[in-house]
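To whoever is covering the structure queue this week,

Two jobs came back overnight. Logging them here so there's a record in the thread.

Job A:
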Amino acid sequence: MSRDEDALRWEGDDELDRATPRDARVAPVAAAPAAPARERGPQAIRWLALALAIAATAGWVVVVVANPVEQPSLVGLALYQLGELLAVVGPFAWWFVVDRLAPAARRAPWWLVGLVVTAPWPLVAGLLA
């Protein structure tokens, strides 16, 4: 019988599925290594970036509430409100996307860029003026 024909037969496969007590002693389960202490730094940056994203979101809520706008058409009003919604959700969405997609070593620069891009600039300019 050739090797190809042997591969198509089920003979002897029952013994392969049964584990023996000797098999359990051969391969002990290795314990997972403990996390190094240097991973605490990125966690602190992660929580700081989240706090800043929540602060920027709150800032956009203040801007939206403080500046009511009337539009001459229903379409203009709908689009303006969509822009307000995206401005409010933007900082947290940026944080979430960076947290999920960026490698851990490159998250901090992306969060810094997101903080600048999604900052509530109307509120910041009003406070500085």
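Job B:
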Amino acid sequence: MTMNEPSAAVSRRGILAAGLGLATATATAATTAMLATPAAASGTWQTDWRFCNRCHGLVRYPSPVQNRCPAGFSHRVQGWTFGVPFTNSTDHHAGETEYQQSDWQMCQYCSVLYYHDFPGVCAGRGGSTHLATGPQYLLLHDRNPVPSGFQTDWRFCYRCSSLYFDGYDPNGVCPGNPGWGHAAAGYMFHLQVYAYTL
């Protein structure tokens, strides 16, 4: 199975319907549907973040090296491509606001987005902690209503410190909670949808 093929467990229709605050019919009509320019949070944007349909984490389109999924083998990306804002500032929690949390980092070993304050558990390091690479990311959270063009139900897992999608049952595979899946805590995060890719 290729990286972009749908999982038997998570249908394309399920990806489209799960918590997205925008019309989905037009997105399914084309192989890739470009959506509105990200505007609801501050920062510079990366638009190559994806949902892994094996662990349910948010992963930056992984390279062969940075591609260890806690479900075993490689991440398998599916569905929406997300835009995630970042800052190149090295100041701890730079750019943080009432509705935007910073200090999220990409792990250089497993490619997941994780909360740097709690380095958690990394599947790519045999259960050791995540190690950061790249800029500091900023995540929009707890807006009501959820801004148009954003998907909600993204949560912090207090077992492994990764960001994961909490809209499915079971709720993914967690390296810090083997056999039980991710465990949510804290804010409800919203991610800007950039495109849908089959």
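Note for Job B: The radius of gyration is 15 Å.

Please reply-all if you pick these up so we don't duplicate work.
Q.
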